[in-house]
Design a protein that fits this description.
The chain is built from 9 helices and 9 strands. The protein has one domain: 2-enoyl-CoA Hydratase, Chain A, domain 1, CATH 3.90.226. The chain is 33% helix and 16% strand.
Length: 302
């Protein structure tokens, strides 16, 4: 056999590219390559820049509740097409498609669970279901959850991510803003703590109602929180918004939210806040002139 043999090489050469997902992703924030497994193990946060991607409803509940303690409520409430609404497709078809793509049958999951040592009422909006839009069932489930928290004297936590009111239900969806707000007013009168957690994005009628009515309002980093989006505002006023406007950090600076908490710390911090608020509620007044013997988790001061 000569030096320049024409024998076929021993190395197997792949002539066609295999289809399928390799697992590598490009972070939309820092443009670094990250692996899907690494992202999942890091609570869906970029390990390079800590950008917070959305969590599924199931993962969010797991991240905030003690294992196997979540008990769903009011799942029997299902949306209906009262207005016979049709845009590019009929509303029932949109609902069927959303239910097929999502693990939920509506844009919110509510129930009770344990957060550390405290039993709480928990509501989590699902952005994968029609953009987390608030229709009649979303408003009714949240209202019933608030009333359940009032009856059982449970602290309430609602995690919001939404595009706002559901246009396919028109005025019926807008009515949910008043209904949820009215229920929260009764909860406030009873001095039962309500903590609102804002995630990316929280917009429209959700921001304009229950999401902004918490005794304490916390947000994840770099979350878009607004009523109308930046593009709509810029087109309306004919001016550019300041850098970072409508993001968590901007809103914290201007007093709309109370604190920003990273996802890895969210469960422990919420447990501290519930402990603090419940303790003060039992003493009579969380903000009395006498103060409290407990440390404020937001300031680390009494």
């Amino acid at each position: 056999m000569g030096l320049f043999s024409r024998d076929k090489p021993k190395i197997k050469i792949q002539t066609t590219k295999k289809d399928g997902f390799s697992g590598w992703l490009k972070c939309t924030h820092c443009n670094e390559l990250i692996h899907a497994n690494e992202l999942e193990q890091n609570s869906n946060c970029c390990p390079k820049c800590d950008y917070h991607y959305r969590l599924s409803t199931e993962d969010r509940i797991k991240s905030l509740s003690n294992p196997d303690t979540f008990e769903p409520l009011f799942n029997d409430l299902q949306p209906v097409d009262t207005l016979k609404f049709v845009d590019t497709e009929a509303y029932p078809k949109r609902l069927a498609n959303a239910q097929e793509k999502s693990s939920s049958n509506e844009a919110v999951v509510v129930g009770t669970c344990y957060l550390d040592k405290h039993k709480i009422a928990l509501g989590v909006l699902d952005f994968s279901f029609m953009g987390g839009s608030m229709g009649s069932v979303v408003g009714e489930r949240l209202t019933r959850l608030i009333e359940h928290a009032l009856q059982e004297q449970l602290p309430l936590i609602i995690v919001s991510t939404s595009g706002g009111a559901r246009m396919q239900e028109s005025i019926l969806s807008l009515m949910q803003m008043a209904k949820t707000s009215g229920a929260l007013a009764k909860l406030h009168e009873a001095q039962i703590p309500y903590i609102s957690v804002l995630t990316n994005p929280t917009t429209g009628g959700v921001t304009a109602s229950f999401a902004s009515l918490g005794d304490i309002i916390v947000a994840e980093p770099n979350a878009l929180i607004c009523f109308a989006g930046p593009r709509v505002i810029e087109q309306t006023i004919g001016q550019q918004l300041p850098p970072g406007a409508q993001k968590s950090e901007f809103l914290l600076k201007h007093g709309m939210i109370d604190c920003i908490i990273k996802r890895h710390e969210l469960k422990s911090k919420l447990a501290e806040l519930v402990d603090f608020l419940k303790g003060n509620s039992e003493e009579g007044d969380a903000f009395s002139s006498q103060g409290s013997s407990k440390k404020n988790p937001l300031t680390n001061k009494n």
